[in-house]
């Protein structure tokens, strides 16, 4: 094997997961048929997104289109929701899983939140710790990634989901569930979305954040929020004052990709593409490290480990670089008040873009780096 760098760094779709030719075909059909629609401003006045796209997203998630608000990628959904939910509070607290998606933490902090971590176990948040925390302070919201979490790969189990929704009703806080990887399930049964559970739990408040980045194309920048109809309206007022609307062309292309079945077809295809990569990754981690992985994910992009190391994280990362590994700093996935267990490095290992030999070689190099004492 040639000694090229093994990239365990970015969670982006590999090029073979993006149906570029089919999207290009849809785009040129839209450009020819509907130039007036896609080259003009979108209608203003509480505009919640292209109507056709909202209808398609409503169908995809079996919800009323009036509950859908379209954004430029789900990161913008996080930004607008943070602005909306934190607007009147002084030094609001936001609870997140520890570890969690680092960019989300940065966004919440930029909106003035004190972001605090609740430990994540193999099947979701540690609910004993969460209950304890709720008794002291009720957060402005709780942010969770319940399906194939970034960075850990953990899926929150059905019972924990029910309890989270119950706690939202009991204490009166909102839950943001971010579900970009939900459809990428290779095996097993999907637990119920928190948003669906909230519909039958009096007083529970769940806002769902979705994205087409992992199921179709991240370059289209189509994200969305699903919430009670008041939420799309409130977000529309904010959005209009910043950027009017997402680009009409990209929204119409996304709507056609949903309507023509391209998203469903692509999902079938990428599940088949990723499953062998997932199986090989799980096998390589198990064989080399035994049981230090947090969970065996049945889908998504990530496996993760708490790797025992003999140095601090900085020295370990330097050793890993020398071994030819590109890693993301694991402590960066922990909000400031939390950290990986002492004596370990937390490592997110994305498998979606690596062939089995490459992943196994990466794991061998990790083991070598972890052995180094200086
Ligand atoms: N949320 C999570 C949990 C993610 O992993 C990502 C992308 N890595 C995003 C949001 C952002 O996705 P988008 O391309 O829709 O902005």
UniProtKB/TrEMBL annotation:
<keyword id="KW-0032">Aminotransferase</keyword>
<dbReference type="InterPro" id="IPR015421">
    <property type="entry name" value="PyrdxlP-dep_Trfase_major"/>
</dbReference>
<feature type="domain" description="Aminotransferase class I/classII large">
    <location>
        <begin position="45"/>
        <end position="366"/>
    </location>
</feature>
<keyword id="KW-0663">Pyridoxal phosphate</keyword>
<dbReference type="InterPro" id="IPR050859">
    <property type="entry name" value="Class-I_PLP-dep_aminotransf"/>
</dbReference>
<dbReference type="GO" id="GO:0008483">
    <property type="term" value="F:transaminase activity"/>
</dbReference>
<protein>
    <submittedName>
        <fullName>PLP-dependent aminotransferase family protein</fullName>
    </submittedName>
</protein>
<dbReference type="Pfam" id="PF00155">
    <property type="entry name" value="Aminotran_1_2"/>
</dbReference>
<dbReference type="InterPro" id="IPR015424">
    <property type="entry name" value="PyrdxlP-dep_Trfase"/>
</dbReference>
<keyword id="KW-0808">Transferase</keyword>
<dbReference type="InterPro" id="IPR004839">
    <property type="entry name" value="Aminotransferase_I/II_large"/>
</dbReference>
């Amino acid at each position: 094997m040639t000694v090229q760098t093994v990239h365990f760094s970015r969670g982006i779709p590999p090029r073979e997961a993006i149906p570029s030719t089919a999207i290009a075909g849809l785009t040129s059909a839209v450009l020819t048929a509907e130039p007036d629609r896609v080259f003009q401003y979108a209608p203003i006045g509480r505009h919640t997104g292209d109507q056709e796209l909202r209808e398609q997203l409503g169908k995809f998630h079996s919800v009323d289109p009036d509950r859908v608000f379209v954004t430029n990628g789900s990161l913008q959904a996080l930004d607008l929701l943070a602005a909306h939910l934190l607007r009147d509070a002084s030094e609001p607290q936001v609870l997140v899983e520890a570890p969690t998606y680092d960019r989300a933490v940065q966004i919440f902090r930029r909106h003035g939140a004190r972001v605090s971590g609740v430990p994540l176990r193999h099947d979701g948040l540690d609910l004993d710790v969460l209950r304890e925390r709720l008794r002291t302070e009720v957060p402005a919201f709780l942010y969770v990634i319940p399906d194939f979490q970034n960075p850990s790969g953990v899926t929150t189990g059905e019972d924990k989901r029910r309890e989270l929704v119950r706690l939202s009703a009991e204490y009166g806080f909102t839950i943001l569930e971010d579900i970009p990887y939900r459809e990428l399930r290779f095996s097993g049964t999907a637990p119920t979305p928190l948003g669906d559970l909230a519909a039958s739990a009096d007083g529970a408040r769940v806002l769902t954040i979705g994205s087409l980045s992992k199921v179709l194309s991240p370059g289209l920048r189509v994200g969305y929020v699903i919430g009670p109809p008041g939420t799309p309206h409130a977000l529309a007022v904010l959005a209009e004052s910043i950027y009017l609307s997402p680009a009409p062309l990209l929204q119409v292309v996304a709507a056609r990709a949903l309507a023509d079945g391209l998203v469903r077809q692509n999902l079938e295809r990428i599940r088949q593409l990723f499953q062998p990569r997932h199986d090989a990754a799980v096998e390589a981690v198990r064989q080399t490290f035994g049981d230090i992985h947090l969970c065996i994910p049945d889908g998504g992009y990530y496996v993760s480990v708490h790797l025992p190391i003999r140095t601090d994280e900085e020295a370990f990362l330097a050793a890993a670089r020398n071994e030819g590994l590109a890693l993301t700093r694991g402590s960066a996935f922990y909000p400031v008040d939390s950290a990986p267990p002492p004596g370990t490095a937390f490592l997110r290992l994305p498998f979606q873009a690596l062939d089995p030999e490459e992943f196994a070689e990466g794991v061998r190099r990790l083991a070598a780096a972890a052995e180094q004492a200086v």
